[in-house]
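Forwarding these from the shared drive since the link keeps breaking.
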Amino acid sequence: MVFNPKNCFCRTSEIQKLAKKASQIRCVCRKTRWQKFRQAFSKKKIYCPCLKDFQRSVDKVEKKHGKTCACCRKLLEKLHLVTSDKDNQPGFWASICGIFKSSCLGGKCECCRKVAGKIKKICGDTAKRCAFCRKIGKKFTKKKPAEENFEDSYEENDYDWWTKYYSSLKPLPKPDERASIRDTFRLNIYNRELETQAEFNHFEDLLMAFPMYKGKRTGDEVVDRDMVQGVFKGNIKIYRWPESTEKHLLTRYGRPLKDGYFGQFPPNHPLHFTLRVYCVRALHLPPKDVNGKCDPYLLVRLVDRVQDNKDDFKNKDLNPVFGRMFEFNGIFPKDHTLVVQIWDRDVATKDDLIGETIIDVENRLYTNHRAKCGIPEFYKETGYCAWRDQTKPTAILSRLCTHWNLTKPEYAPTSVRIASKVFESTKYESCGDDRIDKEVKALYALRNWDQAPFVGMKLVPEHVETRSLYSPDKALVEQGKIQLWIDIFPAGDLPPPSAVDITVKPPKDYELRVVIWNTADVLLQEDEFISGQKKSDIFVKGMILGHDNVQSTDVHYRSLTGEGNFNWRFVFPMQYLQNEDMTLIRRKEGHFQSKDSDKKFPCRLTLQVWENDMFSKDDFLGTLSLDLSRMPRGSKGEENCNFTITEPNAPRINLFKTKRTRGWWPFKGKDLDGNLTLVGKVEAEMELLTAEEAQQKPAGIGRNAPQALPEPK
């Protein structure tokens, strides 16, 4: 083997040692080790196509760096050995990681650093492009501590539809902010009726509604509404007939005009369908009782069929969360209108109608905007974001192409082509399954169908619409709002899919234990009576937001440096709603109330540092607020504890996943000018247990038993 060390910046003696050692390695057939690697690589098959691209990239690096440095040459030899061994592919990235740590890659040789940097970039690009490489690439990626993984994978989380709903209510994460799994999957929440959105135009692209009045209209909306005796649904188009030109004219649907304009309209024979009404929650309902509240429940009517949840009314709630699904079987055109009502339950008197909303179901089924079932943003076959339509995205896309007389979709490795339009997502990543990849590409085309030339229009996405409620007695005065969505499944060869479970999960009982160990650098405000030296009498308060349980440590007297030693435990029982990331407080507001009223607060721990005064009110110094599901990771030492650990892009942990954490966190306060400043640091340990775990391992408050804490030294 010939080495040319002239272009290497590491010491000549080290190169000579490496060259001598490499030249002494021989195989049984007396061929050099490098030649053996070459033969092994050419004979054995590599199953992953990305590894072939990886080998080509390695060859390019070899041409430039292979003859300049002995350690670079040795590095490339090891890379060839790893890529040529098909039995070692599961440990491919682990082997690469070990190679990078060998030789002089720690920083002694400049050309080695360049080679290693290029190889790392190749490995990173390969791992992102190929599903097989992504799977085995976990061994190559350096594992982070368990604290930093504040969210698990999509499959492992116990999330449901409400997780996606409440995530959609939040603003999108900032580009420099760490996004969790629960913030990735969202749906559209419209603040008005779906048909009133500008892109859908009341769903009158196919069928238009013409009210039929008895007598002459007066112009008063309330009076004219009582005069309506029926609705005519149809469409009217005016065009020249017979055609006076030799050109072959086409309709909007790409069909010859000579065959008639309405050739693609649906037939007028009875059509059986399944209707599902998902009622999420109501907003800003007017009070109906003397206490300024109401007891709402739902009543849903499809012509002569009625369903309600009167037995499950919401007690004294003006913003109730229903989480109910009502299912009907109907026939078009007979069952064309859906009425959703909210009633106030009364014990001694007749129930009062709060308000109602009316939905034209027939127009939603026949519109070209495809409003019968919303199209989600991501394609998943399992989990809380699983596909919930009768047909898959590829089948829907094929039907659209047939309906509009377009060519069949042509699927490429990263895109799908329809006529002259190519739909290609910049965020597309292959999952390794060709069938699923095809569905993902078809779904992207459906989500962007409005970009299709001539026939493009916006398709209804997965959504929740907000509808206004009106009472017949006050026709023009809004009586609150209701959030819901409907799915329509025509009867056919395929049965209706499983319904989405929007049942509200009950809260889970937890116990949060916080041990305050020490404080440091606390602001000193008082003067020592004799010496005049600055001092402070420190104690710490702790509470959960919205709870009345406020706990305090004992007082550390006469701290001259801002240091305080406590060894004091807080214990906070609480009820946690995982999907909303909120704590729940239930209490009765009156002696005659039959049910408890619920109040929700963010799941936030607040720690405060105070100055104890003997003859006056205690002085507040600073505070620290920690969201338990997304709290900043504490620093390991007080010297590194500052405001940088609380910045948006700083590492975060989910205490409901990690269960325990310990570290230093900064207290925030205000100076004389009103600016935020560091007023102290606290060393705390937090442990979160379920109610069952807390019962098995009880702990006392303060330093009391069980699990008594020692006195501070």
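-- next protein --
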Amino acid sequence: MSDVGLPRGWVQCRLGDVIAYGSTDKFEPDEIAPDAWILELEDIEKDTSRLLHRKLFSERQSKSTKNQFRKGDVLYGKLRPYLCKVLKAEQDGYCTTEILPLRPPKEVDAGYLFHWLKHPTFLNYVNAMSHGMNMPRLGTDAGKAAPFVLAPLSEQKRIAGKLDALLSRLDASRRHLDRVPTLLRRFREALFSAAVRGVLTSDWRSEDDPQLAGTRPISGRPAKTIAETTPQKSQLTEWLDELPTSWKVLPASDVVRQGADIVYGIVQPGPKLQSGVPYIRGMDIVDGKILVDQLLHTSPEIAQRYGRSALQGGDVLLGIIRATKVAIVPESLTGANITQGTARFRPSDLICTEFLAIALEAPETQRWLHAHYRGIDMPGLNLADVRRVPIPLPAPEEQVEIVRRVESLVELADTIEAKYHAIRARIDGLQPVLLTRAFRGELVPQDPDDEPAADLLERIALSRQSTPVARGRTKSQGRSELRPKAKSLADTIAAMSSDDFTFDELRQAASGDYESIKDELFAALADTNSGVAQFFDAGSGSMKIRRVSE
């Protein structure tokens, strides 16, 4: 490796040259105290290294082997390393074996190491060297060979301190900025609520004509006649009693065009076709828009059998399985269809398309719909319930005014949200820039009197020669002694007495330390030609390994 381009006194080396990468102390569950901190990967927020949860063994009741870590260790998540889960241990504890405790020698500052593990150069390397398709992980040998830039110790501390200060300010900016999406969501909910309650246009009604002479009240049933089966559900419609006196309330079935009932669509659309009749699924509706480019197609013959649910521009769609999302069908999708997870509303002359969409998306309507879900694993709505959902109905002129005001304010919220995403992206882009500058020696001044990094590296090597690293425990401490590697893992698997076996059984039979065996096994599982596979054994309720014929 070359030191070209590095500041004077720095050296480029491998991570394994300075850290005993992969050397860990392992403990079984029965060896861990109830009040011990147990760290899992999901406890660390990706990229930010923020600790999301701190749970004790008594809370987690873990049943798997854990790595022990000490205060001051740098904890590195080797599973799916692109998530960049790195944490500085502020106290002793235990972690999943997918997290490696890295204990720097006195010649390496822990904060400096922590920031290097988030550096773009290191991340690019580990992402390229990870093995496994669905659950990629960094192997021990690859981790030892990872690039590392070593600076003089005093400068390491200055760099770590500067990065801590700058990145903490970035994190604070993120936290403040990330309140914006929640505020915008609440704003949109309040806006749609005000729209369907008549609050949004209260000034328009009074200013337009105190006697409401400019409106044409709609004849319809009052809210109280839309009966509910339980007192709890009756509370969902109490707000309708407070609507303006010129408004009426109708069930959804009474605001759609005659002869175009509220219906769901195709039950079995058949194989995916490159062309044909497009159909809309619930997942195709995002933020009130239909993602036209991702629509699937069915054959004209199947679509014809579901002609009752064929679409026209201006129809309103409502998701009725899992998510009650709302969207308006554009003119370009006239003739398309929907699936059984979506209901179609074709507005009558009583209600304009945009106002119907607002009414269905309003939090009051959404609560009503969710209260009428049926099923647990896949909650959905019965069409009979969908057809009787109460729809508040102002005069046509007021509907137009409500739509105008809602669209204007939603456009403002969308503009703010776009600015939020742009600023958030700029903040996220600052971290790799700062890290790059820091490890080029551009963030803090160099001191010519600092001890060169080459001397540090030599001292680390001499220390290892005189005191070999020993993080594992002996048999007298409750763990089996580490044995010299005598045969490959493939030979061990071939010699197993049964085709199906557990990882613990493999560990007992194999030579080598825990991490090496685990890394070699995962590499084998990722290789379809290795003659080994993993499966879930329903009888024991656990994952097992199977030796398969080539």
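The CA atoms of residues 52 and 129 lie 28 Å apart. Residues 489-547 form one domain.

- D.
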